[in-house]
TrEMBL record:
GO terms for molecular function: calcium-dependent cysteine-type endopeptidase activity. It comes from the Eukaryota. This is Calpain catalytic domain-containing protein. Belongs to the peptidase C2 family. Keywords: Hydrolase, Protease, Thiol protease. Residues 26-339 form the Calpain catalytic domain. PROSITE patterns: CALPAIN_CAT (PS50203), THIOL_PROTEASE_CYS (PS00139). InterPro entries: Calpain_cysteine_protease, Calpain_domain_III, Calpain_III, Calpain_III_sf, Papain-like_cys_pep_sf, Pept_cys_AS, Peptidase_C2_calpain_cat. It comes from Pavo cristatus. Signal peptide: none annotated. Gene3D superfamilies: 2.60.120.380, Cysteine proteinases. The active site is at 81, 248, 280.
């Protein structure tokens, strides 16, 4: 569980619950009331909405029925397949969902002690680097007695509907969840490091060697507890007969190498298939090509193998397909790595450091921290700067740059992300102050510049000192920023490296030649 948690709207769950029980009333959340304002800011649901508690929708309501499963979820009428796909991924990892739904047994309805039910629940999300607890009541929007948004396929199970409500409260309304990235939701659920890969641009459907590298990477991530989702762009010409839905997010629920055995007359290479299992958040409409639920290909697989794969011939939204077909039909994949920081793990251990900062605009160049990308030669080095050391001869570094979530600003037309990215420079080993002029420093890495909430870069760097410079693409666009690099830790028994990432840097008065260096840089770049 997180060591420290901030309270959203300063609402204290235990205190509020105790008050409700003492006063024999059910909690009604003043911060996210059962009103139109919580539902939408522009587009109202079709039909008369009534807010009802689970106890009014069924007998014996529960948070969980027979545990938690990726099969529990159905999307509803909101365009948030990305969120539901992320929930399906979350349901696969007990240790992760227990962070999001803390003390779930204490929150569960108990028919033996109805007096302890207060209609109040709590969930936790990783918001901009800080675990944040969101308290809600259990009044849910319905039309004609049916939940209109995310719900379980079991009538009396409500964890998904309540989780969605908490996330909607964080975003400002249910409508604010219309459209988004599964990677963003997974990061909010886990604090993972998210990497997005464009399968079309990378030509993974054409280059078999790259396809196999990607499969092995996804397999490793999945085995080590990471979460994966994928997407088909609306512009992609997916044939309707495949059963796949353009503009739709899917969760990856399993990745396997399938051995077909000696019954095949194929070549040796054909005896091993690379397979991926997906789930459609709609809870139906599945892939209808090779290796779909009812396809002839499954006759080549023993009953024992089918059982181990969890194959079910049902229209439940979950299906298998070959990795080759997956690369041909899907356009994007989001890989969310759970960074392993345990020194006792058998897998590679990483040291993580996190820094908060801001692109703060100031008319005084020495104080301005909003200089734009590298193309803005006169102002680029005015951006925030962070320093870190690579202490081995060669080491892999993961850097995730995140901008503050702007979803709450959707209702005033300011919910779009801005274009961000970052540069990494190799600098002098004894550098302790900000860069004001580029001379001997080597530009070693440039992230993609894109208008997503998270920007990711994986890079192998040689031993030495480096400066990370996060930027907006255009100058003078003030915005908070979170730079979260994580790197593999070399371990000498109980020793752990210090200062893998540390703030640079700060104040120019600490550098005797800082002002001069800046003025020189101005003169050089101006010419």
């Amino acid at each position: 569980m997180p060591s420290s948690v901030q309270l959203f709207r300063d609402q204290k769950y235990h205190e509020l619950k105790r008050q409700c029980i003492q006063q024999r009333r059910l909690f009604e959340d003043p911060e996210f009331p059962a009103s139109d304002e919580s539902l939408y800011y522009q587009k109202a649901p079709r039909g008369k909405v009534e807010w009802k508690r689970p106890k009014d929708l069924c007998q014996d309501p529960y948070l969980f029925v027979n545990g938690i499963s990726s099969h529990d979820l159905h999307q509803g009428s909101l365009g948030n397949c990305w969120f539901v796909a992320a929930c399906s991924c979350l349901a696969l990892r007990k240790t992760l969902w227990q962070q999001v739904i803390p003390d779930f047994q204490e929150q569960e309805w108990d028919p033996k002690t109805p007096e302890k039910y207060a209609g109040i629940f709590r969930f936790r999300f990783w918001c901009f680097g800080i675990w944040t607890e969101v308290v809600i009541d259990d009044l849910l929007p319905t039309i004609d007695g049916t939940l209109i948004y995310c719900h379980s396929n079991v009538e009396n199970e409500f964890w998904s509907a309540l989780l969605e409500k908490a996330y909607a409260k964080l975003a400002g309304s249910y409508e604010a969840l219309d459209g988004g990235s599964a990677a963003d939701a997974i990061v909010d659920f886990t604090g993972a490091v998210a990497e997005s890969i464009d399968l079309v641009q990378g030509k993974y459907s054409e280059t078999i060697s790259e396809q196999m590298k990607l499969f092995e990477d996804l397999l490793k991530v999945h085995k080590r507890g990471g979460l994966i989702s994928c997407f088909i762009a609306v512009s992609n010409e997916v044939e309707a007969k495949t059963g796949l839905v353009p503009g739709h997010a899917y969760s990856v629920t399993a990745i396997r190498k399938l051995h077909l055995g000696e019954r095949l007359t194929f070549s040796f290479k054909a005896e091993k298939l690379f397979m991926v299992r997906l789930r459609n958040p709609w809870g139906n409409r599945e892939w209808s090509g090779a290796w779909s639920d009812n396809s002839e290909e499954w006759k080549k697989v023993s009953n024992a193998e089918r059982k181990s794969l969890g194959l079910t011939v049902e229209n439940d939204g979950e299906f298998w397909m070959t990795f080759e077909d997956w690369c041909k039909n899907f356009t994007d994949v989001d890989i969310c790595r759970i960074v392993n920081t345990s020194y006792f793990s058998i897998h590679k251990t990483w040291e993580t450091k996190m820094m908060h900062g801001a692109w703060a605009k100031n008319s005084e160049p020495l104080l301005n921290r909003c200089g734009g990308c590298f193309d803005n030669v006169e102002t680029f080095l005015q951006n925030p700067q962070y320093i870190f050391d690579v202490k081995k001869a060669e080491d892999k570094v993961l850097v995730s740059l995140q901008q503050e979530d702007r979803r709450r600003s959707k209702k005033v037309g300011k919910g779009d992300n801005i274009i961000i990215g970052f540069e990494i420079f190799k600098v002098e080993d004894n550098r302790s102050y900000r860069l004001h002029k580029l001379t001997v420093q080597e530009r070693v890495a440039t992230s993609p510049y894109i208008n997503t909430r998270n920007v990711f870069l994986k890079k192998i760097l040689k031993q030495g000192r480096y400066i990370l410079i996060p930027t907006t693409y255009l100058p003078d666009l003030p915005l908070p920023v979170l730079a979260a690099p994580s790197r593999k830790c070399f371990m000498y028994h109980f020793r752990t490296p210090e200062g893998v990432l540390r703030d640079g840097l700060g104040h120019l008065q600490e550098s005797p030649d800082g002002l001069l260096a800046f003025l020189c840089a101005q003169d050089v770049f101006a010419g």
